[in-house]
């Protein structure tokens, strides 16, 4: 059975070189030509360029936040064009108030995810969630179930390149026998001033151990969330404000957001 769980708002106010002539070689000897090598290098450079788009600190916002849904599709009307610019502007207002649903830090083939909505049911401590096995995909694909959670499944996300990875709890938490899910994201809008908006999907299926089940939790819970994301703000020194590669002792609280939770 599927139920909707709404977590109350917290205290925070919230991405060929040309072939060269080949030297004469004895018959019977073969080697890859500079042309094939150049194509491979060009492909690697393109992938590195794409992966650099998906790096650093970002703030995530649930697609189910009412203010963002209204900016995306006014009055809930289904239109032929989604309003990504308006969504970005609304998110900017939330960012200025230090409000967000979750935060991520991406670095190459791995990253981390943090939200105060996924936590140990006994201690109430937030789970440290890892994003692993990150790969670039072109095009990035979403399953029917993943796409169905988006505000306008028939309109977005647009078909294009993106990143995908697996999610899991970072540490061996007491009471958790297994935790895994997916993380997918692509850039959907770039403004005239270089502003960027990303759209994606996050999931984490947590299976509890016998001890936690006997305590009245589980046996499992499935977290699912479509989201929009923007790059983290910078401080006066130009440094990104976010999770970073190191787990911090304390961080700003997150705003509440609606989850689709299967139990």
Main beta-sheet annotation: 8 strands, antiparallel, barrel
Alpha-carbon distance between the two ends: 6 Å
Averaging pLDDT over every residue, what do you get? 77
Low-confidence stretches: 1-39, 42-46, 247-261
- Tell me the series of helices and strands, N- to C-terminal: EHEHHEEEHEEEHEE
Strand content: 25-35%
Radius of gyration: 21 Å
Helical amount among residues, as a percent range? 10-25%
Overall number of domains: 1
Derived structural class: alpha+beta
Q: Report strand order across the widest sheet.
A: 2-3-4-5-6-7-8-9
Number of strands: 10
Tertiary shape: globular
Count of DSSP-assigned helices: 5
Question: Mind explaining what this structure looks like?
Answer:
Residues 1-51 are annotated as: Disordered. With 263 residues, the chain is of the alpha+beta class. The protein has one domain (55-239). It contains 5 helices and 10 strands. It has helices at residues 34-53, 66-72, 84-96, 144-148, 210-214, and strands at 2-6, 56-62, 102-107, 110-114, 129-137, 162-169, 176-190, 196-208, 220-231, 258-262. Strands 2-3-4-5-6-7-8-9 form an 8-stranded antiparallel barrel. A hairpin with a 6-residue loop joins strand 6 and strand 7 (176-190).
